[in-house]
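Input set for joint prediction.
Command: fold jointly, output tokens.
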Amino acid sequence: MIRAESLSKHYGAIKAVDGISFAIEPGEIVGLLGPNGAGKTTTMRMCAGYLAPTSGSVQVHGFDLLTETIAARKTFGYLPEGAPLWGEMTPRAFIDFIADVRELKGERRAQRISEVTGLLQLESVLDQRIETLSKGFRRRVGLAQAILHDPPVLLLDEPTDGLDPNQKHEVRELIRGMSSDKIVVISTHILEEVEAVCSRAIIIAAGRIVADDSPAALAAQSGTNRLDRVFRRITTGRSRAGADRERS
Amino acid sequence: MNHVRTIARRELRAYFATPVAYVFIVIFVALSGVFTFYLGNFFEREQADLTPFFGFHPWLHLVLAPAVSMRLWAEERQSGSVELLMTLPIAPWQAVLGKFLAAWCFIAVALALTFPTWITVNYLGDPDNGVILAAYCGSVLMAGAYLAIGACISAACRSQVVAFVTTVVVCFGFLLAGFPLVLDAFSGWAPDLLVDTIASLGFLTHFNAISKGVLDARDILYFLLVIAAFLYANAIVLDLGRGN
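tokens >
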């Protein structure tokens, strides 16, 4: 499971993340929702151990990200925002490198590589340099990297950003198809995505959690049963207050 | 150590994936030839040694080693791939060491490709090949020290150009630490102990000792310590980055 306790990240006077706490159990697919600048990516980065929190702690599978960093990182796959990759590599060399780092060996290694390249339909571009690939392919190479070692925890920062509707659908199918004992956390600002794949939505605005419930229950809060209405109502008030705080 | 090798292999392939590596090697070999045969008066000296060849290495490395090290971290920070690298289950020291070793191997390959000069001097005369081997070792060690400084500075920069220029300046300071240019800045006010310490940090002094064929453990240790110190600093710079 993932457990974040009063997680904060301050940049000078700006509180990018301001005391967030949550616990996520296996089997949950959580959507981290919020307007741009709400602190989604900062939260993801702290969960992945890329940023050290100003205060608070994160544990993944019982390993603390600050003190047992390597052990914790072995338990998850992470897709950073924008899916950065090494452009001069080919997907084949890149996935090979990741398999080395993830210490996959022998038959399992070959099996995982062929499974993942098949699942993300990368066969046709395996020997093309990553920098020449379209945005959609690049995102899929980034996803392949995250799921290669079949981790119990997946942290995906805007996994469908830049994909066309068909590709979006496929990635959502992929996330939904993950076995039921996994944890998946996706950060997004696309509400339909949350409704389509997530069992739980955590909405953050101005660095704080403003709602934490199933998408259906959240939608029911508005008379019209629409998530976007609820989202707008709970995030606009707070984000305006947050913007004021940043300015002052 | 497995992870260090994995990182180093990826990094070394990255050098050769673009024409940059080949351009670099050609320039390195060509320049070392030009320096030796024209500026160094290799033939006019009528001596069977490579003193003119190695005499220019501190200056050749001064410009070319920072060009190799500048991309090590700055490029990753620019493209964002450093986030991918630093969230894999790899310890920072493994990434630091792997990247450094790749750059060092690359310079060693470029240096090895200057072998025609060595063949030439052996064809023309009867040089002391022990001295030449020692000087090659010294050259590799000095290049390693430049690269470690450059890697550390690259980790602190987002721009490769800034990393390059800063590295050249810092390396220049280290190169001439034993000379009046640097010492005069300190000798007026600093205590003698500090001035003596700075004087003993000069790359040139240590390299010249080795290239004369005297493989003194202290000179070798000196370069290895510089490398270790800057790689350690490199890891610290990366860790500071986690805070922001």
